[in-house]
Description:
Blueprint: E1 2-6, H1 10-21, E2 25-30, H2 33-40, E3 46-49, H3 55-61, E4 68-71, H4 79-90, E5 95-99, H5 108-117, E6 121-123, H6 125-138, E7 144-148, E8 153-159, H7 171-181, E9 187-194, E10 197-199, E11 212-218, H8 222-229, E12 238-242, H9 246-257, E13 262-267, H10 270-279, E14 284-288, H11 294-299, E15 307-310, H12 315-327, E16 332-336, H13 340-348, E17 353-355, H14 357-366, E18 374-379, E19 386-391, E20 412-419, E21 422-425, E22 437-442, H15 447-454
Helix pairs in contact: 1-14, 6-9, 6-14
Amino acid sequence: MKIIIEGAGQVGSHLAKLLSAEGSEVTVIDSDAERIRTLMSTADVATILGQPSKIELLTEAGCARADLFIAVNPMMNQSVNIVSALLAKRLGAKRVIARIDEESYLAPENKLLFKDMGMDMMFFPEKSASEEILDMLRHSAATDSMDFARGKLQLAVFKLEDDSPLLDMNVKEFAHAVKETHPEAEFRIVAISRGGKTIIPTFDTPFKDHDYLYVITLRDGMPALTQFLGKDKVEVRRVMILGGSEIGQMVATRLAAQKIDDIKIIDINQQHCRKLSEILPDQVSVANGDVRNTDFLQEEDIRSYQAVLAVTGNDETNILSCVVAKKLGVPRVIAQVENLEYVRLAEEMGVDSVVNKKLTTASRIFKFTLSDKVRSVRYMSGTDAEVLEYTAAPGSKITKDILKDVEFPSNAIIGGVIRGGDTFIAVGHTHIEPYDRVAVFALPDAVKDVDKLFR
């Protein structure tokens, strides 16, 4: 697949590395020589230095034969991304995607307008990140989560602490122990993240301290599973948001619409605080102060909040303020972390959940590199694997036999199946039928092989 990426910022560079590692032919365009040099030192991709909206440059990059054009320049006015993408489409690119910074563009009538002009998808990373944070607040017992079929099937991530009852068990013993006490619970452990590496487990795989378990379960089984794991769901009624960033504003506005009792935003810039007070709903209070100051946070009564979200523009500040909040007794802390190398560090320091805009964006865009049988793709924190939801095509290889007799990649696993109004956990004797919706957990080197099975 030939892919052209306009913009070598954090999102563009991450996508370039990801997609080139998947075997795609990637060309990156950027007007900043330093960003191009940095990318060339870390990724095996072709680069072009120049203004991305110039027709001559887009032609030179090969838009006429491009399968996908991704406009993600972070520094210019975001209209440049839209113009570049639409020009690329006119020059022959099969599909085009643009990053935007104006939420109104995503209104149904405006999306239809852009679609008529040739745009295949627009995305707003900050909006996606805010939606992910809200989802984390709803599923407060897990580190991360993903719903299928409106929650009938759920994937949740749980961290094993020092006192976890699982530490003396393997996968088979755990499944047996849960069934003994909670026979109604149906679930499957699809992966274990350990020390930065992802393992597709077998029945004999033992659990270790600080493992992250990726578990697919039916909705009715989630309460029993969280109870067995000792993970209590937090009823979030008071939320403190550290940082009046765009993400912070979006989350505050949505929480106010959900009638959350108390929402407070803290920002270090006094002028920005005055602006926030004017534009945010009346239910949101705004305080001016330094979130790195523990005394100030205690003066703002941080101990009385059920959740603290750190979404300033500084990773270190977000991580450390969440660590402080956790030590002060806040049940649920979530940090926005943009440096991928800091994600694991944040989790090891006790941050409950981490949001990364690059991973959220990559999930949405990666879907365009696979077959049309993929309904959704999601990268989850703590693992380099992907969670995919497929629709099984009539006549596809996955429908030819029961799962244990299908040549399924060893670095992937099917967790659950949605068939009409029924949802069930997949086992060896499960037979996938045409039009089944199937939840798959796959390491990067297995995704293309999985994709072929569902076509």
